[in-house]
Structure of Caspase domain-containing protein:
Amino acid sequence: MKKFGIIIAIEEYSTQVLPELAKIEFAVNDANSIKTAFTDQLYVEEDELLFLTNEDANKASIEKKMQNIFARLTSEDELYFYYVGHGFNTKSQNRITCWDTDNSNLEETSLSLEEILLAPLKASKSKKGFIFIDSSAEELKSKNKMKSAASNLVEKEYSEFIRSTPGYSFFLSCYPGEKSFVSVQAKHGIWALQLLNALNGKDDAAIGKDNIISNLSLSKYLSAKIPQYITKTMFINDRQSPYAVVDLSNSTPLIAFESDDEEESKNVEIQFTQYILSREQHIPFKNLEAFNKAKHKIPKDHSSFASKLATELAQDEFLKKEIESLFDNARRTLRLKNSNTVKDPEGGALHTEYFRYNISAQQSDNDFTEVTIRRELELRVPLNSFPMPIDEIFTEGFDTITFPIKGTLDVDALEDALYDLEDDNQGTFEQKDNVFSFFPKNIKGIDKVELSKNTLKIRFASSQTSVKEILDYTQQTLEIMATTLKNLLT
């Protein structure tokens, strides 16, 4: 069995073709780092790796050299494909641009992913691979007046391939109609940066069961991490929603990391100053005001298209309405300045100098016929520095507070510690899928405490719990669990 890699990156397009295609910032830097990850983490040999950037990534060269790779690919081999550059969808085909793509004749001078990638993979009968595409059509649409690609058409091509080859997974940096952003500080595309953090084992949140990054854990990680990164580091009135097309019934391993539990457990830290307050609401698709029986169908399984549909249906009823209302309230009470405020009703975001608030809608994890409306609040200043009572702004309340955990908890030590709390009649606990749930006694308002590899969550009995009550109840809970937590962190 061999592992093959294909990396294509176009940062600067040919100047001989006018009008010239827009530059893709840091594309080559992304590609070089991805190449290192392919060789060091995925063990792709240099002889089995095709690496093309800028002028080397012209149409003729890509076609010829990819054909050479597929001529060697067998049913026992694996393929890892990474592309960064402009891409678009036309006539139900996903297409990528080349260094010499003609902006005035896009279709004839670009490449069909079906023809250069998917069809050859089917012919090779290769059973496993990962496809990463960091691409946006926004620059092309603005210059060529292209119509926005329909997400169901874009996804259909990938979904049909997955049905015939379930060992393959597709990861895309953003939905059609969105942009793929870059970080000037990191000198990487944001999606590529988080993908690299996952591949290189720099973020435990990407690692799933048995210390393995799989198609499922990576999909969940990227879909959560990109919006979080943009929220915390960028003041932009826009959004980027990465998505994956994978076989949800098949957990395909990408990387298995060796675990050094003894060393990791010495560096565990619960970051109590970085908490996030949240609340979830679950609504059947059919009960959303925008759901139209003549136009929409209730999903029959989980898919990225269903999550996109959930966002679209909930936009007016929840996202826009709630952000506009919250903005009016916060502007009046906090005297917000426009220069320090980002309001994105369609994206469900309101970021101010005092807080970051996000509301999102996606297909529910536990029931594919339902939509989960999730609200998150992150304070940017200490509560005692707020210019007014915070609950006068956030009147709906929350039901969960989450603290990130840096490092990896010693599972055996955690289990022993929770048994001790149970023996002391402080509460009961249970374990499921590496999540430890502790149900404390005699603490008003607390439903349970959840400890996992990456987070400490405290869930409250009521979804209408005020911010002040949450912080008070949290303090009581942490006091009861203080000895347990102290032993785990030393």
Summary: The first helix runs from residue 27 to 40. Residues 142-153, 261-266 have pLDDT under 50 and may be disordered. The domain at 397-490 is CATH 3.30.310 (TATA-Binding Protein). The first strand starts at residue 3 and ends at 9.
